[in-house]
């Protein structure tokens, strides 16, 4: 996935992101080619990378036989590239090695000696309103019907809620939501825009009435005639509580969903939990942010799905928030005491883990766990080393199952359909402006299994064109055959 200035206001155009995503989804399927021998592979791949439209682009490619260091093709494989979401391969590999497939996040509520209740979040990215209702029911079962004060302790994960190297348009988009000790509904909120009669502004339908109270909306949109193109943009201030809606919505259009990151995850959590408590007839007084004592009694708790399930969300759907939360879990394991876990500590654990797996530590330099930062640097060689190491690990099947399958699911669902690569390629995608990547495994029916990494940087071509070229190469790999 799917990404600073001193101006007073920062206006972000979400419709641009939507249009880009729609364009990427329509990338053409490469035309199947004839079976090729390994000796033909260099000529075949070079014919793609040397096209005039890629004359200014940088290609990094490495193709090896799975389970060995035998290289079938290499182009600048040892050099650094901006990897985009291929970064998630390193993050999930390290997490699986360090935490294990059964690791779960725990969100707890403790009762203090002062009868205050303390919520301790540990960075569960999967927490939703449904889990809040479970917590409320557990409190009701403990005969807790009135809470004098509810306190959020958010000390487990420290540091910036978003990496400082993320761009402004990313941190104000739903795919760049903040990550901390308390995460709820992926730290986003939504509303729908509905058409009205011609000339009237689009109607705002909030999914959360409490969230609607947090914003002052300037609605400058307009309803236009049926079958006209929708062109909506939602902008917000860098600080403050103003949302501005502009553009047009056709009179016969479906509801237009807008999703934005929350401003303060702690207080968003408290607002939503107040509603869950009210549904159980539990009265809540004051709310605040504070610190709990370790000797308090746990009165309610919920667990996340196991790591094996969370990895599927990260790699198949390229979920940035999940990846960043999983990264920080590495730091929590190293320093389980509150106020110690940071992204930097987690990256140190990641590097140590990958080195132990045989991945050359000089082959990458990371600043986040999702790949959203343009400061991440990874070589195709490091990605292939990671894939090779995971294929030889006890967690091989879990790791591989987390990857999208060509033409079947995740970010590869609409790619490679009706080609020889369909269903036999499992790989992680990556897309940033000017940086497209794909790395994973291939099981050619007439050749031994392969591992590969392809990264394209510094291209001025549309992402759909670059992805089509990458897919042509992968289709060729899928048709390798043993030749005399």
Automatic annotation (TrEMBL):
Its EC number is 3.4.16.4. Residues 1-25 form the signal peptide. It comes from Fischerella thermalis JSC-11. Pfam families: Peptidase_S13 (PF02113). InterPro entries: Beta-lactam/transpept-like (IPR012338), Peptidase_S13 (IPR000667). Coiled coil: none annotated. One of its GO terms (molecular function) is serine-type D-Ala-D-Ala carboxypeptidase activity. Keywords: Carboxypeptidase, Hydrolase, Protease, Signal. One of its GO terms (biological process) is peptidoglycan metabolic process. This is D-alanyl-D-alanine carboxypeptidase/D-alanyl-D-alanine-endopeptidase. PANTHER family: D-ALANYL-D-ALANINE CARBOXYPEPTIDASE, PENICILLIN-SENSITIVE CARBOXYPEPTIDASE A. Belongs to the peptidase S13 family.
């Amino acid at each position: 996935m799917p990404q600073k200035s001193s101006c007073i206001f920062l206006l972000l155009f979400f419709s641009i992101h939507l249009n880009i995503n729609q364009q990427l989804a329509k990338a053409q399927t490469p035309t199947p080619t004839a079976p090729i021998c390994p000796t033909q592979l260099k000529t075949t791949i070079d014919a793609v990378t040397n096209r005039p439209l890629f004359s200014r682009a940088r290609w990094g490619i490495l193709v090896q036989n799975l389970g060995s260091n035998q290289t079938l093709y290499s182009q600048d494989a040892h050099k650094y590239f901006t990897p985009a979401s291929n970064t998630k391969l390193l993050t999930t590999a390290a997490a699986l090695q360090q935490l294990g497939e059964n690791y779960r996040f725990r969100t707890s509520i403790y009762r203090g000696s002062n009868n205050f209740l303390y919520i301790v979040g540990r960075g569960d990215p999967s927490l939703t309103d449904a889990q809040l209702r479970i917590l409320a029911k557990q409190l009701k079962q403990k005969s807790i019907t009135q809470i004098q004060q509810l306190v959020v302790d958010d000390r487990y994960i420290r540091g910036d809620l978003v990496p400082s190297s993320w761009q402004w348009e990313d941190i104000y988009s739903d795919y760049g939501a903040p990550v901390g000790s308390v995460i709820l509904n992926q730290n986003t909120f939504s509303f729908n825009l509905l058409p009205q009669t011609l000339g009237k502004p689009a109607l705002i339908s909030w999914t959360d009435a409490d969230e609607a109270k947090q914003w002052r909306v300037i609605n400058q949109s307009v309803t236009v005639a049926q079958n006209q193109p929708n062109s909506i943009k939602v902008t917000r201030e860098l600080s403050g509580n103003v949302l501005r809606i502009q553009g047009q919505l056709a009179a016969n259009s479906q509801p237009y969903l807008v999703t934005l990151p929350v401003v303060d995850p702690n207080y968003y959590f408290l607002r939503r939990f107040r509603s869950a408590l009210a549904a159980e007839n539990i009265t809540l007084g004051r709310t605040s942010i504070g610190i709990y004592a370790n000797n308090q009694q746990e009165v309610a708790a919920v667990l996340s799905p196991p790591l094996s399930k969370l990895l599927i969300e990260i790699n198949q759907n390229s979920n940035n928030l999940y990846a960043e939360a999983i990264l920080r879990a590495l730091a929590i394991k190293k320093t389980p005491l509150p106020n110690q876990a940071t992204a930097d500590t987690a990256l140190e654990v990641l590097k140590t883990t990958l080195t132990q797996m045989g991945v050359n530590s000089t082959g990458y330099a990371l600043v986040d766990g999702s790949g959203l930062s343009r400061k991440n640097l990874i070589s195709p060689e490091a990605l292939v080393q990671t894939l090779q190491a995971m294929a030889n690990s006890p967690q091989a099947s879990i790791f591989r199952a987390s990857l999208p399958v060509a033409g079947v699911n995740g970010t590869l669902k609409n790619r490679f359909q009706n080609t020889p690569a369909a269903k036999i390629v499992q790989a992680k995608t990556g897309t940033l402006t000017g940086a497209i990547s794909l790395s994973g495994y291939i099981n050619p029916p007439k050749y031994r299994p392969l591992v590969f990494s392809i990264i394209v940087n510094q291209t001025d071509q549309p992402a759909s064109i670059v992805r089509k070229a990458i897919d042509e190469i992968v289709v060729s790999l899928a048709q390798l055959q043993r030749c005399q």
